[in-house]
Design a protein that fits this description.
DNA-binding (chains A, B), mainly alpha, homodimer, DNA-binding, Tscrpt_reg_MarR-type_CS (chains A, B), MarR family winged helix-turn-helix transcriptional regulator (chains A, B)
Chain lengths: 155, 155
DNA sequence: ACAGAAAGTTGCCGTCGTCAACCAATTCTC
DNA sequence: GAGAATTGGTTGACGACGGCAACTTTCTGT
């Protein structure tokens, strides 16, 4: 029956919503721990951005607005925070006088590497029993979910 | 080589972290839209709790502290908000004079049902191309992930 | 009966994102 | 090429939200 398929779909969506709700609350703690491991004064929200800058090379702040889908103002503040801590460097974009390019500083890279090493050593505490393939599949699903969320609400 | 396995595992973990970071930012908007659909003044955080009370029958506030892993105080405020809006009812627990049991009010149920129906009708806007099985698998992964996060940090 | 422990409430505070106003540099347009 | 619209970024005001701690009330254990 169509209704059954629809029903289970609906249930899956509801379950998904609940799990996401739990996630966004629990993850705060984990990110908090990890950010403190990188730098005592590093705020959780800034850690995620630092991590992204580290992965995706020099980029401008506005690029992160798109990725994280948050306000320019919020990005600006987090970036300032990261600069204050000496974790990233800001340099003018040679191709556009308005823009600035962000790079993780040497200290920032060292700190991130150290934390990554710690995490690798213990195969990440809590997820140790997840096979790499499942982790990848999970990350891929998350990405797809995020992409779906990225579609403008006014379709 | 072990190192390669470890490396890809580490990469998967980093990717996972980034995706989760994006998720927790984007999801805010979606939850925000949905909560407003239920009630104009319903705050996003309260919507998730309302939804949980609706699924998991009469329960006490402290039960949600465990589920969502947040402070008693935060729960108390959200619950008060939900009561102010007339979306849930609070009744003393007959088995424990300290506790109160929360139930979604008739109005609350009606509003949730209406929103659920809307969501079902359009097979949830953005996730329409996800088969139910994948959605379920995704939700299951999320649950497992959440469970892993739930393990106390001090192992 | 008395010392905890558990359920909630409340105030204070820090984090964080949005909105809007604003500046500077760039691009578009006639 | 001057003026308008656009884009990158900063800042301030504000609201949502959770953590912590103090406190009340109601069990529970011995």
């Amino acid at each position: 029956m169509t209704t059954e398929v629809v029903a289970s779909r609906s249930e899956a969506l509801t379950a998904l919503e609940t799990e996401v709700g739990v996630l966004i609350r629990r993850i705060r703690r984990v990110i908090g721990e990890r950010s403190r491991a990188v730098h005592e004064e590093l705020l959780p929200a800034s850690y995620l951005m630092l991590s992204y800058v580290n992965e995706s090379g020099p980029l401008r702040a506005s690029a992160m607005c798109a990725v994280f889908d948050i306000d320019k103002g919020a990005i600006s503040r987090q970036v300032q925070h990261l600069i204050d801590l000496g974790l990233i460097d800001r340099a003018p974009d040679p191709e556009d006088g308005r823009a600035t390019l962000l790079t993780v500083s040497a200290d920032g890279v060292a700190r991130l590497d150290r934390v990554a090493a710690e995490r690798r050593e213990q195969l990440d505490d809590r997820l140790a029993d997840w096979p790499a393939e499942e982790l990848q599949a999970f990350a891929a699903s998350l990405r797809r979910y995020n992409d779906a969320l990225g579609i403008p609400a006014d379709r």
